[in-house]
Amino acid sequence: MNGLGIAFLLSLGTVVSNSFARFAYALMLPAMRNDLGWNWSQAGWLNTANAFGYLAGALLARALVDRVGNRALFIAGMPATALALLATGLVDDLLALSALRAIAGVAGAMVFVCGGALAGNVFPDDPRRATLAITVFFGGSGAGLVLCGAGIPLLLERGGDAAWPQAWLAMGAASLAMTVAAIAAARAIAEPAALASAGAPVWRPRDFAPALLAYTCFGLGYIGYMTFVIAWMREHGASTTDVILVWSLLGIATLVAPWLWKRPFAEWRGGPVIALVMTVLAAGAGLPLLASSLPAMLASAALFGAGMFSTPSAVSTLIRKQLPKPAWGGAMAVFTILFAIGQIVGPTVTGWLADLYGSLRPGLALSVAVLLAGAVMALWQKDVASESRG
User: Fold this and answer.
1) Which of 106, 124, 94 shows the shortest CA–CA distance to 22?
2) What are the chain's domains?
């Protein structure tokens, strides 16, 4: 199997951990809210529970990666995420659903953090192709978004709001099959022989403070859009066809994004590329506030998809360029911890604002503002590697 083939199969991990375990909920939120009688805060809470689990998983990865390696944590996280998805279709109690969403978050974080580090080792002696492998890994979950966008709205239209458990069961079954392929890819990637030594840290978080703050803003800002955008469309009269088109275009944009950003990721240093990606993301998140027509929502999906997975890809590329290999997993875990903290706040605040003002608009506007603030912060990120060489 060639390197890009390995990167593609490894990217099935982001299909399971991101497209299915995190983002597909947006497509089911209106149906689950109607069927189970939730308010907006309860609906947002279910993604907050997933984010709490994601934070716990990132902390766990940070604690264990230097001892057991990225491959072992990735291999453990894949089946755990798949089984949590499957079980979500078997319960309807908010507490049980919250627990399963949290478990999916724990396992999904290990897949995401450690998979990104593994992707950086697909081409260990070719920096340019290594960058491409990283972007393929993070962008690959676009295929999962397309699958969800094509399947879930049609299933719910045919079966009604009460058909949401069938969607979780279908994603769980598909995830188990993807687990087999992703684990095979992970086993084909060599990890660095030497892990970080216990007494001498090989990176200083303070050197990456602007990027860390920007990534926190990314977690806080993007999740409001990804949780409630379909509910926003439904509130403004969108049809099932409209939802399919918008969500599928979102997925297609994430698939195209690795090639769109290939040159900036390979040639730029420091934080400007992160700032540019987050600006594109903010533009996509802001368009629905200006117009809710189908053309506006399609443009929003295209821009948001171009930036969504490209932001963690840009951060992963920054880490790979600035730090030695043994530090990659640990550094990505720290970035993901701060991202997860932001992600915890986003859905609940957006839902709370919707209940308070009777509209999703204030929460979505806050998401745009936070994303723009993160873009400004990223501009202050210096080229640490160049400074150390000088």
Assistant:
1) 106
2) 3-189+205-385 (1.20.1250.20)
